[in-house]
Each structure stands twice: as structure tokens, then as C-alpha cells.
Fold:
Amino acid sequence: MTNIVILTGAGISAESGLGTFRDEGGLWAQHRIEDVATPEGFARDPDLVHRFYNARRDQAAKAKPNAAHVALAELERRLDGDLLIVTQNVDSLHEKAGSQAVLHMHGQLNRALCATCDHRWDAPLAMHKSDSCPACGQQAPRPDIVWFGEIPYQMEKIAEALSQADVFVSIGTSGEVYPAANFVAEADHFGAHTVELNLEPSAGASRFAECRFGPASEIVPIWVAEELAR
Ligand code: APR
Structure:
């Protein structure tokens, strides 16, 4: 019986055609975070923020899971133990690949949130500031995305899973954003074996017991096959 927690970041979706944030030409090279990924930016210009997320929602809707997402779904099906994917990604490529136990700590593009009454619903492909909340009728819809300065979702559940993990794997994340960047330290504290699978060493690479570098679509299936053969 082996319990595994896997943290994923934008790098796992890169080969599915979805941009990362901090790579060359990434999303944060094209847009100012304070304009499109903060509550203040949304209050200042909700149309700009809706346009930013409408474009990403449209792109994510067309994207297909790659071999890394598919391998993690197979791991969940065949592992003798619990697997939890904690993703920083707001796309639904893990679910499209068949993963069931997925926790979106930064929210999801395909969900909408009412800034007035906190009601959540399935987001239309294109959201507009004049959309009415299905619950309270107010015109205060926002993407159900955790912006900078806001609290990531389900942190208690994540902490509980990390305390029970035998293995913690970080895939496709730069390790630049907290609290996700500290999960390796939490898992290590509870005795988990820690693995980084990334295109290149992340900011936190030295904190992992094991590191493998290369494109996720190549190195994740190899790691999954070894894990299942144990
Ligand atoms: N295979 C594996 N790793 C890859 C690949 C690939 N094909 N392409 C890029 N990477 C790696 C990069 O080397 C980098 O370490 O993925 C990482 C992407 O880092 P970021 O762009 O910083 O994305 P992420 O770590 O997910 O950002 C975390 O920051 O802006 C916020 O909320 C946003 O969830 C996001 C968070």
C-alpha cells in the first residue's frame, strides 16, 4: 500500500499547447499580473480580466491531455494505495485524461463565482461582467480562480494528504509560488520520498530527494511505469 500526492503545475500542460507563466514568452511576459490576476485588477477593469480568462478558457476547452496526464490517470487506476493530484493548473486536462481525485488549489477556468453571494456554477465559454448570478441575480460574476493575495482552496485537505504521503511528486512547476512551493518540505517532514519531474531544475530542486529532468510527456510515463512495477 503506497499513498502518493502529486503536485502539478503549468509545465505538465505545456505539451498540450497551454502556455506556462514564467518560461520565455510565458503568460506573465504578455500580461501584468496586477492587471489580470489580482482582485484589485478585477475591480479596476473587469472587462480586461474577463477577456484574459475567456481567451484561456477557449484555449483550454480545445486542449487535449498529453501522455503525462494519461500516465497519471493510469497510476490512479492501478496503484495499490491512494493517489491525490493537487494541481495549480486551472485547465481540466487531468479530468479529461480520466483522473478522478483532482484538487484545483488555484480554482478552475470552467467554474464561475459570484463576487456578491459566493455561489459557484459552470462557467460559460465566454463570461461578461453583465452576466447575472443564477442564485442571487446580481451582475458580479468572476472567474472561479484564486488570484494573488487570495487563499488557495482546500489547504486543510492538502495538508492532511501530505501528512499521509509515502511519496510526493512535483511535476512541471517552477516552485516560485507559495504555499505550493512548500509542499515538498511538508511531505519530507512526514517522511515521504520526494521527487521532482521537471523540464529543468525548479527553484526548489535541491529540496527533493530525487530529480529527473525532461519533457513531462516523456519522463512522467517512465516514472509511473517504475512506480507500478514496484
Ligand atoms: N515538461 C515539464 N516541465 C515543463 C515543461 C514540460 N514540457 N515545460 C515547462 N516546464 C516547467 C518549467 O521548467 C517551469 O519550471 O514547468 C514550470 C512552469 O513554471 P511556471 O510557468 O512558473 O508555472 P507554475 O509553476 O505552474 O506557476 C505556479 O503561479 O502564476 C501563478 O497561479 C499561477 O498556478 C500558477 C502558479
About this structure: The first helix runs from residue 27 to 30. The two ends are 11 Å apart (CA to CA). The domain at 19-62+107-145 is CATH 3.30.1600.10 (SIR2/SIRT2 'Small Domain').
